[in-house]
Amino acid sequence: MPSTTPKTSARSPRASHLELARQILDHVRARGLGPGAHLPEQALATACNVSRTPVRAALNLLVTEGLVTHTGDAGYRLAPAFSTASALSNTLPQTSDRDLTARILRDRAGRRLDETVTVGELMRRYSAARSAVTQALGKLAEDGLVTRAPGQSWLFSPLPDDPESQADSYDFRLILEPAALAPGFRFDPDRAAALRRAMIGFLAEPDHRLDPRAFQSLDSEFHGLIARGAANRFLGEALLGHLRLRDLPGTSTRLNVVRLRQAMQEHLGILDQMEAGRFDIAADLLRVHLRLSRSQRPQAANRGAPPLFGLTFRAGGPDA
Question: In this structure, are residues 48 and 27 in contact, taking their beta carbons and an 8 Å threshold?
């Protein structure tokens, strides 16, 4: 019988175990492993360049999240219901400092925090120590989401889901992302194959079962595949840094089912060309994809165009 590994306590898991759990999921996706696949501790330890003890802790975390099962005889295996899409959309627990950062972002996204805040205000609101608040603000500053203001004040930058910020984001990506597919692009066939299977599985779902968070995860994985393959490391780092901004908690995008399916089909078309080594054509299709996405950003609804009734999702934020 599967083990009854207890749920983690109220105390947040160690950051190193969370990071290792994410590495294991990347390892699983890259190799296209499916439900029931064996996850040998030693093989994972070798692949991740760590000892078996932290690997076991990371696997137990995945057991708690329902992605892995464990029995004394069979060891660790991917859960019967495991799928690449479910793993991509799964949100692992946050460490305490990340949790505070995410809470601040969620409250700012919900306009529960003013544009300018103070350390003391955040300490009272979240019952947090000054060091924790300062550390959280430091992380937000690293991502360009807050800047120091006079005194103890901090000023929020426009959120990544702000219409003006989204327009700037698409302009940035249109300039840089197709350029990543220049000669010398390093295509990862294993990661691409796992991603293709997940995208096809996603499109097979009926409209009422489409998960916008799974879409956002697959979208991030797809554009990350392009960024990581860039021959120019400065270009790749810039794209990955921007991708992290788009994935921050508290950011969101409104999508309708029609565009959601269309965008996923566009991803597959670009992937077809990448797999065939026709990176110039893939770059052209990517430009079209980004322009179509930019033309349907939420600003259009703000000018009076109503969303498709019953077909609009809010994706991207933890509270979506």
Answer: yes
At 82, give phi and psi (nearest 5°). -65, 140
**Which fold is adopted by the domain 15-82?**
Arc Repressor Mutant, subunit A (1.10.10)
pLDDT at 205 over 80: yes
Among the listed residues 3, 126, 16, 119, the one whose alpha carbon sits nearest the alpha carbon of residue 70: 3
Q: What pLDDT, on a 0 to 100 scale, did the predictor assign at position 251?
A: 56
Q: What is the per-residue pLDDT across 226-236, written as a single tens digit (0 to 9) for each?
A: 999 999 999 99
| pLDDT tens column, 141-176 | 877 778 998 877 999 877 666 677 788 889 999 999
Question: What distance in Å separates the CA atoms of residue 209 and residue 221, rounded to the nearest whole number?
Answer: 21
Class of domain 163-315: mainly alpha
Reply yes or no on whether the pLDDT at 16 is more than 80: no
User: What dotted CATH number matches 96-156?
Assistant: 1.10.10.10
Put residue 238 in one of left, alpha, beta given phi > 0 → left and psi -120 to 50 → alpha. alpha
For residue 296, the model assigns a pLDDT of: 73
Domain with CATH 1.20.120.530 in the chain: 163-315
- Cα gap 70→60, rounded to integer Å: 8
CA distance 300 to 312: 14
Where helices occur in the chain by DSSP H, the ranges are 15-30, 41-48, 52-64, 84-89, 96-109, 119-126, 130-142, 163-176, 189-203, 212-229, 233-246, 257-275, 279-295, 299-302
Which of 28-32, 129-133, 181-185, 205-209 has maximum average pLDDT?
181-185
Q: What is the C-alpha to C-alpha distance for residues 205 and 218, in angstroms, rounded to an integer?
A: 14
In three-state secondary structure terms, 314 is: strand
